[in-house]
Structures are given as structure tokens and as C-alpha cells.
Amino acid sequence: MDIIASGSNKIVKYVRSLSVAGKKGREAHAAFVVEGEKFVGEIRHPWEIEFVLTSKSYADINGPSGGYVCHIAADHIFNSLSDAVHAQGILAVVRQRTFGLEEVVTGANPLVLLLEEINDPGNLGSMLRIAHGLGCSGIVLLGNCADVYSPKVIRSSAGSIFHIPFAKASFKQIKNSLTAKGIRVFASTAKADKALYNADFTGPLAFLIGNEARGISADALAAADEHVKIPVYSESLNASVACGILAYEVLRQRTIIG
């Protein structure tokens, strides 16, 4: 197999357009990059891998990646494409997917995360990981959220992006859909009177979590069915931490009470 040794190679340029060039390149090609042996190993059907790219050092030790179209690049070329602090020598180019709301709101007793303008990629990736780990049905991205296919989101999700459905919608769209399905929307806000452990989370529900700096928009807050707070000594919590606490309280109530 030929070793890619030039930065002007078409494969190198394509990978760079999906990572270094940012969201615009990913949207243009409807693809994204997943880097690292563990995260590449998380990819399962129906997610589609276009090809795998490895460094020469990685290929010398592990051989070509079986089952996929595989390209090998000289170490310095691969490292120039890596977003990681310490490149592991393997990445995959993966096709993006589009999920419908019906794929997010599933199951007899759904738990949905409604994330309004979550701007920090690390937070969004952590929320995907929380949703996967705590049994959420799916995630809805409201407004101008971070690009779910950015390298930092992928890395922060620790592979959970391949296990939890996510859709984009306006709050009005999703609220009408949830109401039609008998799903109550709980807004997480520090100004609420009711603490989360005094609310009933055993039935179908969705949590509305707002922007890291501004919180939940006034319109969404007014349209929520109920407001709950996480009692803390400080003024507020990190958005992904709050998300984890809320989702775990649902798991606790449904395990103990349900």
C-alpha cells in the first residue's frame, strides 16, 4: 500500500477540511472525523465509515484496519491532522446522520434532554455521555448549540455520540410534539421553588437546560410545564453537571419507586 507523504494529497486535504476547517467543511461534506482507537472502535451500523486513516507507525504495529477502506500516512502527515494532544495514529471519516424527533422520543417512559444554546463543545459532549450512561431516550438541540460533530464534542462524548439519538428543532416544535405524547417538560432553573427531589420524575418527561451564561430563554421558561431547581450553596452549576444530577435523579426515582 502506498504511504501518503504529501500534505497536498487529496485524502489529507479532505480530512483537514473536516477538522481544521471546522463546521463549514463538515456541513459541506456531511461527514466528520473520529480520532483514537477506542472511539473508532465504538462506531457501529447504521453509522457509516467512509475510510480509516492510520499513521505508518500505527500500521507497522497493528496492520491495516480490517473491514474498511484504509489509507496510511507518514507519521508527520498524520500528526498534522490530529486534534489530540498525543496522536494515537488512527482516525476514521464518518458520514453524518439525521435523526427525526420520533427517534429521540421513544420508549414507553421516555426521558429527553432539551439543550438550549449549549455553546461549549465540552459540555455538549459530556451531555451526550450522560444521556447514554443514564438511559435517556435522546437529545434535542435547541437554537444555536455547538456543532455536535466537532472534534471536541466527539472526544468529550467518549463514543456515546454513536449510542444516543439527537435531533435539532425549535422549542415550539418539540414542545408541541412532547405535549401530544403526554410528556411533561421540566425547566431546570435556580429560581424555581421546588427542589428536584420533591418532583415526580417517574413518568414520561423532558428536561430543559439552558445556555451556560444566559440560562433558559424567557419564552421556553414560560412554556415549560414545571420548574425545578438543584439546591446548591453556590449560585449555579456547570450545565453538564446539572444535566447529570437531574438525569440521575430520574434514574433513582424510577429504580426505587418504579
SSE order and pairing:
Layout: E1 3-4, H1 10-19, H2 23-29, E2 31-35, H3 37-41, E3 49-55, H4 56-62, E4 70-73, H5 75-81, E5 90-95, H6 101-104, E6 111-116, H7 121-133, E7 138-142, H8 151-157, E8 166-169, H9 171-180, E9 184-188, E10 205-209, H10 218-223, E11 226-228, H11 239-256
Parallel strand pairs: 1-4, 3-4, 6-7, 6-10, 7-8, 9-10, 9-11
Antiparallel strand pairs: 2-5, 3-5
Helix pairs in contact: 7-8, 7-11
Rg value: 20 Å
The residue-averaged pLDDT reads: 93
Shape: elongated
Order of helices and strands: EHHEHEHEHEHEHEHEHEEHEH
Beta-strand share of residues: 15-25%
| Oligomeric state | single chain
How much helical structure, as a percent, in the residues?
A: 25-40%
Write the CATH architecture name of the largest domain.
3-Layer(aba) Sandwich
Give the termini separation: 57 Å
Number of distinct beta strands: 11
**Tally of distinct domains:** 2
Primary descriptors:
258 residues, alpha/beta, 60s Ribosomal Protein L30, Chain: A, six-stranded parallel β-sheet, five-stranded mixed β-sheet, 11 helices, 11 strands
